[in-house]
Amino acid sequence: MCQQCIASLSRRSLIRGGAVALAAAATIPLHPIAARAEDADPGNPDEAIQRLIDGNARYVANTPINTDFSPGRAERARGQAPFAAIVSCADSRVAPEVIFDQGPGDLFVVRVAGNFINEDGLASLEYGSLVLGIKTIVVLGHSACGAIGATIDAVKNGTELPGHLPSLIDAIRPAVEAAMAANPDDLLAAATAENARLNAEYAATATPILSEARKAGKLKTASGGYDIATGKVTFA
Questions:
Q1: CA 191/CA 43 separation, integer angstroms
Q2: pTM above 0.70, yes or no
């Protein structure tokens, strides 16, 4: 066969091969990870909370599905649409995306030692609700919280802390005093739960944005406790 014929056949083969490849590619989602049922946008606040519960169950069972963060990276550069906000402690052992087995772009996280909501945190949550469309706010306490423990020490023993640490104590103090009034067997656990509950209640009633979203059925708030040893989150 002449060289010209061979070249012509080669070009035709390449063209046919390219067409087949393009046809095959057309059947593959541009972002395969977005095709998973777990990534569908929750339709309401209850579904959003259930998605967090399901994700935490996968984390506890060590069967996470969010292990490859490269798919969807280009899409995430265009914007964000998180379905939930998590108010968590700054403790290095508390990583909300890991704990709830969610991927980048799924959670809007506000972190501060002691997981309380101050004015800046409230503004962040309002942005999450008004602009990003979050459907739930979870205030997440955790076991062995140093900020709660320090507040207990300050309240019971009058311990004075340096620098700006007293501002943390002042923010957490109401929860500790409320827990102490009940005389619990485990004051640290009780104060941690009360702190999360009080701040979830604060988020639910904060005017005008969050309270209006809650009254309209667009937003729910909840408190939870994360056990570092087991990985399990218990919702109140």
A1: 33
A2: yes
